[in-house]
Amino acid sequence: MAADMGYMHRPVELLSDPRKLQKSARSVVSLGVSYYPGDHPENEGGGRVARYAWGLDYHEVIKGRLFRLREELEEELDVRIKARGFTDAVPLLERSAAQHAGLGFFGRNSCLINDEIGSYFFIADLILDLDLDPDLPGEGTCGRCTRCMDRCPTGAIKAPGVVDARLCISYLTIENREEIPRDLRQKVGDWAFGCDVCQEVCPYNKTKASRSRWPEFSGEAGSGPYLEIEEVLKIRTDEEFEERFGGTPLTRPGRAGLLRNCCVAAGNLKLAKAVPDLVRALREDPSALVRGHAAWALGEIGGAEESLGEAAETERDTWCLKEIGLALADGTTDATLG
Ligand code: B12
Ligand code: SF4
Ligand code: SF4
């Protein structure tokens, strides 16, 4: 169920033993960092961004503070500490470490839930060559609730705690480098980066989530809750992309990946005002991935048969040609029905 995330196929002994990451490891200090920036305002035609990515790149923001924590520990305990600090960057089962450290329990959506703040938090770790008394493991329960499993748009939560990444919108829009499978595109809805549905419906978040105290994670610090789809569709080079999104988590899927996502969101929103930029992307974008998804979006929105027809004359990529053909066929069906 790990799709093409190669690191997930590593042996469990590696994923569960911090000594594989630092030979001298004796303890793991596991930290929870709330990123909750509030809820999405009503969508007025943008590509929806998962809450964890509204602000600045959490890897960098948290890393700086982990180093300071190590320094403070050294001062407090008057010892030199060899440490390795990271968040979401190494092959270690971070949720398992955090659960052992008492930060929360596994929800059926597989996220770690903390009884006081819900699940909108990052997990960060400091591996130390210092013997510390362990905390008690986190406890808690979902009770009879199954909301996340029932409401996941793609049915990705196959069993309690088991997420099929191949179906998960978070995977499809962030880690995935290929096309978003045609049968899943409509289910992606307006999500342009990540997905929060299985956390939004969670009663723990509805009652306990309180805003992060870290200004770096607020919408104002980074790209915010929605992307302006037309603006993103105009980005043609990696340099422009880096200039616009550098320093935020949105660089992860790369330029072509983010434009692909915006095409799908535009198609699902039936965003007529994005048609000129979709047509331009279909004609000009250097990436076949973007051109093919632009064709799909135009097929969903309708009314762009002429541009699709022209593109069919000049397009050389076989997959794109197929997408254009299918988009034209969808358009014809709509017109016949309508
Ligand atoms: C790969 C990955 C993904 C993949 C796969 C997700 C998955 N559920 O496995 C994708 C791209 C889909 C993804 C999505 C998201 N991710 Co992610 N992801 C990771 C990563 C890098 C590895 C996770 C992993 O190894 N999964 C494989 C499975 C086997 O591992 P696991 O769930 O930890 O396994 C435990 C459970 O199965 C549990 N268990 C065993 N038996 C049972 C039985 C029951 C009943 C239950 C409930 C549990 C349970 O024990 C296992 C061992 O710990 C971690 C960072 C890290 N290094 O850990 C972040 C991480 C899990 N992601 C995170 C986040 C924030 C997200 C998203 C919310 C982002 C978003 N908004 O789009 C979504 C949430 C989707 C979801 N419902 O999981 C956070 C989670 C924080 C938290 N509070 O839990 C992490 C920890 C990153 C971080 N450092 O903060 N992610
Ligand atoms: S992140 Fe979205 S697609 Fe993935 S399991 Fe949760 S609700 Fe389903
Ligand atoms: S929505 Fe319900 S089942 Fe899912 S994680 Fe939250 S409490 Fe558990």
- Low-confidence segments: 334-338
The largest sheet is:
3 strands, antiparallel
Helix content: 40-55%
Q: How large is the share of residues in beta strands?
A: 5-15%
**What is the number of helical segments per DSSP (H or I, 4+ residues)?**
15
Given helix and strand content, the structural type is alpha+beta
Radius of gyration: 22 Å
End-to-end distance, in Å?
40 Å
> What compounds sit in this structure?
cobalamin, iron/sulfur cluster
What is the number of domains? Answer: 2
Mean pLDDT: 95
Strand order of the largest sheet: 1-6-3
Q: How many E strands?
A: 10
- What's the shape? elongated
Order of helices and strands: HEEHEHEEEHEEHHEHHEHHHHHHH
Describe the structure.
This protein has two domains: 1-227, no CATH class; 232-338, Leucine-rich Repeat Variant. 41% of the residues lie in helices and 11% in strands. It contains 15 helices and ten strands. It has helices at residues 12-15, 58-77, 94-100, 147-151, 169-175, 182-185, 197-200, 203-208, 229-233, 238-245, 254-269, 275-284, 288-301, 305-314, 318-337; strands spanning 27-34, 47-49, 83-86, 105-106, 112-113, 121-128, 157-159, 162-163, 191-193, 226-227. A hairpin with a 2-residue loop joins strand 7 and strand 8. Helix 13 runs parallel beside helix 15. The radius of gyration is 22 Å and the shape is elongated. The structure holds cobalamin and iron/sulfur cluster (2 copies).
